[in-house]
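Structure first, sequence second, as always.
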């Protein structure tokens, strides 16, 4: 496991270490080379099996299921969901948290299929689309399935409290943002409005992720999936907006730099990755359009890159003092969140 500042503080509370020993050990560990995250073959088998089962009842559904009819789909969905919860309870009692979380997630993923079956059984399904299209196309009438999945996901997550349960909730929120944009624009390809809806919805998801992050700072990481799909929705909506203004493109570049800074502050790589991609897109625009005939642009860009590397060296030398000064001005809850991420 990774040793964090939170682990060391817990050791102090248990009387295993003193405060002085914790400080010395923490500084020593910070100076050690990063060997990357640990990888467990058992965990690989858990997630591989779980994702295959989840994919079988979601992404890889075929037309054969339509032959069961609406009531048949409901019965099979409830049977599988019940089996998933039974397994989750058994794994939980035996202390196998990862397979328990995966089995509970499997039950949540069956919610849109059950709602689809119910709509088919009641004869209120609005068109000729099948369930397999749920993960392929953007349609307004998926909203009932998405809202039902959110309710079910929140209830199951509150009962079992496994971080992986947030994954179907985050994916559903992402789907919901796209389907709401279709509901507002109809089937017309009004990409500007759809991009705006995606961008602002992504901001809401990121805000929710930050709230969850603060609330769960002393427990497990429940906000990972919310951050991921919130950033995807926000960054995608922002990137696919059209503009002929160089100023707006520069603002886009600045927002991506800000995202990278937020990612470093919160120790969330998804911000850094998408921010770096966005920054590269802007620099590519400058190279191919604004300065395409300039021999000076590559030289200037190289100088800027080397300067940033030098700033990184200066930051590393003074990181401890600068971090303490910066964090002292933040709210206490955010200070605790960032402290728990040290060395994580």
């Amino acid at each position: 496991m990774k040793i964090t500042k939170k682990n060391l503080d817990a050791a102090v509370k248990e009387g295993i270490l003193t405060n002085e020993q914790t400080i010395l050990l923490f500084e020593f560990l910070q100076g050690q080379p990063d060997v990357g995250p640990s990888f467990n073959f058992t965990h690989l088998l858990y997630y591989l099996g779980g994702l295959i089962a989840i994919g079988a009842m979601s992404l890889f559904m075929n037309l054969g299921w339509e032959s069961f009819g609406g009531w048949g789909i409901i019965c099979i969905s409830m049977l599988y969901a019940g089996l998933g919860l039974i397994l989750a309870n058994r794994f939980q009692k035996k202390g196998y948290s990862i397979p328990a979380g995966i089995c509970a997630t499997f039950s949540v993923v069956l919610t849109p299929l059950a709602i689809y079956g119910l709509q088919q059984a009641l004869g209120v399904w609005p068109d000729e689309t099948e369930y397999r299209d749920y993960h392929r196309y953007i349609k307004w009438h998926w909203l009932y399935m998405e809202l039902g999945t959110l309710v079910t996901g929140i209830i199951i997550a509150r009962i079992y409290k496994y971080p992986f349960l947030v994954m179907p909730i985050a994916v559903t929120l992402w789907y919901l943002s796209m389907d709401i944009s279709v509901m507002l624009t109809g089937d017309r390809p009004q990409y500007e409005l759809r991009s705006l809806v995606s961008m602002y919805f992504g901001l809401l998801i990121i805000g929710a992720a930050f709230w969850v992050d603060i609330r769960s700072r002393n427990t497990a990481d429940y906000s990972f999936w919310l951050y991921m799909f919130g950033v995807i929705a926000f960054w995608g909506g922002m990137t696919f907006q059209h503009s002929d203004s160089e100023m707006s493109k520069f603002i886009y570049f600045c927002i991506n730099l800000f995202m990278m800074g937020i990612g470093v502050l919160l120790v969330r790589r998804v911000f850094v990755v998408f921010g770096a991609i966005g920054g590269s897109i802007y620099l590519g625009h400058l190279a191919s359009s604004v300065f395409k005939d300039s021999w000076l642009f590559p030289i200037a860009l190289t100088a800027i890159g080397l300067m940033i590397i030098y700033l990184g060296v200066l930051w590393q030398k003074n990181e401890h003092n600068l971090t303490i000064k910066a964090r002292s001005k933040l709210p206490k809850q955010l200070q605790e969140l960032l402290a728990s991420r040290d060395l994580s």
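Margin note: Residues 33-39 have pLDDT under 50 and may be disordered.
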